[in-house]
Design brief:
alpha/beta; binds S-adenosylmethionine; DNA polymerase, domain 1; 7 strands
Length: 345
């Protein structure tokens, strides 16, 4: 059952109009609609570009795989007619009070890696478009107690879904040094992953590492001067990706999306680091994550999508100025083609 919206829910109209006003007159979104719970929760990134990318049909069935504050969902709802439907996913229960009070909308407090199963439960077997705005919401970053940032002292948690047991505490305190090194190297792309992993293992021999500041202190000696924050961000990103199984979930989502999108349906993905973007780019181009173009007997490429955005779309200068958190965003758009046929010209 979708949760009931709370009384402080702000209407679509207020949120979207406020955003458009702020774009037009240059005032910051935060100032313009301080009262809006959802915009405080998260300012949607590349809102206009992603909604345009979905090429919405008023009577279509759509999925917002990453509901968060619901900024993108509200913009989609504004464009749907009576026959349209929107199913949204978010594995973080904190997103639930942002739910949209509309019979055409359903919010599922689930991981999007179970996309097909949960849609099937609701009688949906095909969709007209899917949007995924990956990563973490501002709310999750700002809740210092959840450990998503090294800037405030919080519990080493980093779970988006607090029903799962595996947390950052387990990653940091229980994994063998070699595994830790691989995680820091693969998911954080840290050049000194070995030294960092060793420092963590040395520190935890004395005492469990329980907080974000204790983790920061454990690796302090290995943070290059002038680049402390960059390296800490890479470290926290690595642990977060591991805790939430982010890359595997993304692969599951993309595969399932390609199976249930109708021909002509759009896949729109906003990613925030190169590991995600590479998977999305390869999958949209070739239908696999390695980016290997498979061909049929006659040499024609076998691909599920036509790539709509040849190059990744990035935020405008105006958006970057308004919302610093949009700075690493990359938007990619692809359209499902009826049969696996030639995609690349
Ligand atoms: C960047 S925010 C989305 C913000 C949203 N577009 C908005 O306008 O407010 C990403 C959201 O996706 C959720 N999320 C990330 N990975 C998920 C997954 N595998 N399954 C379900 N939700 C996920 C996070 O909990 C977070 O709330």
């Amino acid at each position: 059952m979708p949760p009931k919206p709370t009384s402080d829910w702000v209407s679509n109209k207020t949120t979207i109009e406020a955003c458009e006003r702020s774009c037009a007159d240059g005032t910051s979104v935060g100032e313009t609609i301080e009262s809006s719970r959802t915009m405080e929760y998260h300012v949607p990134v590349m809102l206009a570009e992603s909604i345009e990318g979905l090429n919405l049909r008023p009577d279509g069935t759509y999925v917002d795989a990453t509901f968060g504050g619901g900024g993108h969902s509200r913009a989609i709802m504004e464009r749907l007619g009576d026959g349209g439907r929107l199913y949204a996913f978010d594995q973080d229960e904190d997103a639930l009070p942002n739910a949209i009070d509309d019979a055409r909308f359903t919010l599922l407090n689930e991981n999007f890696k179970y996309l097909k199963s949960f849609l099937r439960l609701h009688g949906v077997r095909q969709i007209d478009g899917l949007l995924a705005d990956l990563g973490v919401s501002s709310h999750q970053f700002d809740e210092g107690t959840r450990g998503f940032t090294f800037r405030t002292d919080g519990t080493l948690d980093l779970r988006m879904d607090r029903r799962q047991e595996y947390s950052a505490f387990d990653v940091v305190n229980t994994l063998p040094e070699e595994n830790l090194k691989n995680i820091l190297s693969l998911y954080g792309e840290l050049p000194n992953a070995g030294a960092m992993a060793h420092a963590i293992v040395t520190a935890r021999k004395k005492k469990d590492i329980e907080t974000t500041f204790e983790l920061r202190d454990a690796v302090q000696r290995h943070l290059p001067r002038q680049q402390e924050n960059k390296f800490l961000a890479m470290l926290f990103q690595a642990v977060r990706i591991e805790v939430n199984g982010e890359l595997e979930a993304l692969k599951d989502l993309l595969k399932q999306a390609s199976e249930i999108l109708k021909p002509g349906g759009r896949l729109v993905v906003i990613s925030y680091h190169s590991l995600e973007d590479r998977l999305v780019k390869n999958f949209m181009k070739t239908g696999n994550f390695e980016g290997e173009l498979k061909k049929d007997f006659y040499g024609n490429p076998l691909v599920p999508f036509k790539v709509v955005s040849r190059k990744a779309v990035t935020p405008s200068a105006d958006e970057l100025e308004r919302n610093n958190r949009s700075r690493s965003a990359k938007l990619r758009i692809a359209e499902k083609i009826s049969q696996e046929k030639e995609n690349i010209d």
